[in-house]
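Let's sit down with a protein and look at its sequence and fold side by side. We need material for that, and I hope you will provide a protein of your own picking. Once you have written the record down, we can walk along the chain together.

***
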Amino acid sequence: MSGLVRIIILGMLLYLARHLFQKFQQNRLEQAEKKRSEAKKKVESEKTVRCDHCGIYIPADEAIVDGEKHYCSLEHKEQHIRGNDQ
């Protein structure tokens, strides 16, 4: 009977080791994905666009967007629109 108990215990230990290894791998993959996501956000926040009124470049996430046009301020957006109406 002790041989059967040893086989059962060995099986349980192997199952536990496999389970822990899979958890470890899953955590590593999640951390790598999180790092990639953070790096992508950083790159996106560093993109710049050109103000259609004055021509300066500003971060895309700070630009005021009107359709496909970008402006550095509301004032420049309004001035550009008024300039096109005249």
Q: What stands out?
A: The chain has a mean pLDDT of 88. Helices lie at 2-45, 74-85. The radius of gyration is 29 Å. The beta strands are 48-50, 57-59, 64-66, 69-71.
